[in-house]
Amino acid sequence: MSEAASASARGEGEIDTATIRRVILASSLGTLFEWYDFYLYGSLAVFFGGRFFPPGNETAQLLASLATFGAGFGVRPLGALVFGHIGDLIGRKYTFLVTMATMGLSTALVGFLPTYERIGIAATVILVLLRLVQGLALGGEYGGAATYVAEHVPDARRGYYTAYIQTTATLGFFVSMGVIGTTRYAFGEAAFKSGGDLLFGLAGWRVPFLMSFLLLAVSLYIRVKMKESPLFSKLKTEKKLSVNPLKESFTNPTNLRYVLLALFGATAGQGVVWYTGQFYALTFLQSQLKLDWLPAYAIVSCALLLGTPLFLVFGHLSDRIGRKRIILAGCLLGALTYVPIYMAMKAVANPTGAAKVTWSDLSGAQLGAMVALVFVQLVYVTMVYGPIAAFLVELFPTRIRYTSMSLPYHLGNGWFGGFLPLIATAVTTSQAAKDAFGAGAIYAGLLYPTGVALVTLVVGGLFIRETKDHTIDAVVATGTEEEAFDWTTVLVATGLGYVLLAVLKPFVPLIAGLGVSVASPSDAAFTLLPAFAACGLPALFFRLERSRTGALASVFGCFAVTLGLAMAAHPMFRNAGGVTRFFADTMVLGVYTGVLAAEYYVGRSVRRATIL
Q1: Is the pLDDT of residue 12 over 50?
Q2: Domain edges within the chain
Q3: pLDDT of residue 15 exceeding 60
Q4: DSSP alpha helices (H): ranges in 189-229?
Q5: 207, 235, 493, 577: least CB-packed within 10 angstroms?
Q6: Is the distance from CB of 399 to CB of 232 less than 8 angstroms?
């Protein structure tokens, strides 16, 4: 479709700046709501343990409240499928009105919920249900907001305008912190933490949740006044809407390929880079560097405040030089510099390993340096997150855009990113990490975001083409292309990888360190994960362009080369001790990624030269 035709399809000539501002405001309020609740529940989870869960074990209560928090992430992909399907069938406006109302009511009702002391286990069940319902609604919120904005704005400025939605994560943080801080100050600590129920001695911690009613009322008022997306309206008038968006999105080989490429080549890396800079940094400051909550929050808040405008900067820049380059550059920079950055944070904030670091223990120079180190991570966050909405919108056709883009977004952010603080902290504090890395164990959790970012760098760099010049209804999954999309290859590669890892375990210490074993069903199940990551996933992408035999040969050839190199160099790094052990394992991951990328690039070049 030509630029003129695309403009005509969306009526760009009739859209003025005021209309675009209203569209952005209406869409952004929902994502602001999302992040308001995210920070709200995360910050107040410490109070929930003793309010809504059985008494007797404070640690178990806290873990249960955090697990309930995580449950919302777990159901987001399901919400993406449910509400994405509705959005492509019925309309963008109707769907995100439903998600907004559902999300807002689920948050606000927590403020009314009686405690465990009053209604027993019913309090626990209702809280979990509210979190699950809210997670479902959140699964449909972002895709609707991004789609609605993108289908209203000019092609040439899509990156800039959709970047406004990305700023709401930071705004949600400041709004939630402002409401919590004001309430704590107004009520006093004792009244804020009390277990009183609404109307029977109001507990201060309930007020921030009840404030959701105000946000909900304003948001619904603005959204109700908005019109349907012009592109969706055009498809509806022409009777070209998808009959079954779910089927068309995930059974059409072409579109399924784009969904997987979006997940592994963009949103997975974007998710871990984002959560490392914006959430894990705060966790690291408090759990590993022992900073008191006040300086830790002050450092992260200052970095967030300085970094927020960069969402718009990189969104705008992506309209000029492309989404892919900026997103992958952010992944690369994060993978290369996370360890040095976190080592510098340790050296600046707590070089002596003090049991607690308070505000008075930190000089102005130390605070400034810590803000700078977190700010650098926020730059990476804005690079990967600023252009991502425009990238996802441009990757899929209008008739199934809501469904197709929502799933990889929430898998990448909700699963790969959302569970990052938990995974990284668990790895860092594990006995295995302490035995393997010694003093460097505090950096072991960074293996996870580094590895995922490298996978995204390779997959996105090799398999995804730039999207900035697409008109948003130019990428159409017709199903007429012949795609070498073969799940059998993935299963065979994973199975062979599983056997290979199990056989090599007694002879190769590096593989033994993965915990690979077939001694029990549980051990066998955990072995499938490294087998899929090392063999199945690369085979999936090699198979897109090669025969089954060629794809399997490439993967296991790269595996053998990496194993040989690792056996030669890995022991030398590990025997050096200390934090060098961390670089030993990181080196193996980097070498394998590099070997796979080189093999793919050389193989593709040879095939093209042969054809020519």
Answers
A1: no
A2: 1-229, 245-475, 487-611
A3: no
A4: 189-193, 207-210, 212-224
A5: 577
A6: no
Q: What value, to the nearest 5°, has the Cα angle with vertex 307 and ends 270 and 318?
A: 55
Render 94-121 in DSSP notation, one character per residue.
HHHHHHHHHHHHHHHHHTTPPPHHHHTH
Of the ranges 220-224, 303-307, 514-518, 561-565, which one carries the lowest mean pLDDT score? 514-518
Helices 548-575/487-504 angle, 10° precision: 30
Q: Are 164 and 324 in contact (CB under 8 A)?
A: no
Q: Hey, what are 257's tokens?
A: 């390929």
Whole-Å CA distances, 240 to 57, 89, 245, 293: 58, 11, 12, 54
Contact between residue 464 and residue 269 where contact means Cβ atoms under 8 Å apart: no
Q: Which of 272, 260, 236 is nearest to 395 (CA)?
A: 260
Right CATH for 1-229 from 3.40.50.150, 3.40.50.720, 1.20.1250.20, 3.40.366.10? 1.20.1250.20
Q: What are 200's strand-pairing partners? A: 197
Class of residue 565 by CB neighbours under 10 A (exposed 0-12, middle 13-18, buried 19+): middle
List Cα–Cα distances, 324 to 329, 394, 459, 607, in angstroms: 8, 12, 11, 25
The number of angstroms, rounded, from the C-alpha of 363 to the middle of its chain's C-alpha atoms is 34
- Averaged over 282-286, what is the pLDDT? 87
- Contact between residue 535 and residue 555 where contact means Cβ atoms under 8 Å apart: yes
Angstrom distance (rounded) from CA 130 to CA 172: 20
Q: Above 80 in pLDDT, residue 308?
A: yes
Inter-residue contact 173 to 304 (CB < 8 Å): yes
Instruction: Find where tokens 């009520």 sit.
Output: 187
Residue 126 CB-half CA count within 13 A: 18
Please name which of 351, 104, 95 lies closest in space to residue 226, comparing C-alpha atoms: 95
User: Burial letters for 235-268: b for 16+ Cβ neighbours within 10 Å, e otherwise?
Assistant: beeeeebbeebbebbbebebbbbbbbbbbbbbbb
Sequence-distant (6+) residues with CB within 8 A of 592 are 534, 558, 559, 562
- Return the CATH fold of 245-475: Growth Hormone; Chain: A; (1.20.1250)
Residues in the chain: 612
Name the packing angle between helices 121-150 and 17-52 (round to 10°): 170
Instruction: Give the mean pLDDT of 493-510.
Output: 77
Intrachain domains 1-229 and 245-475 with the same fold: yes
Mean pLDDT of 196-209: 65
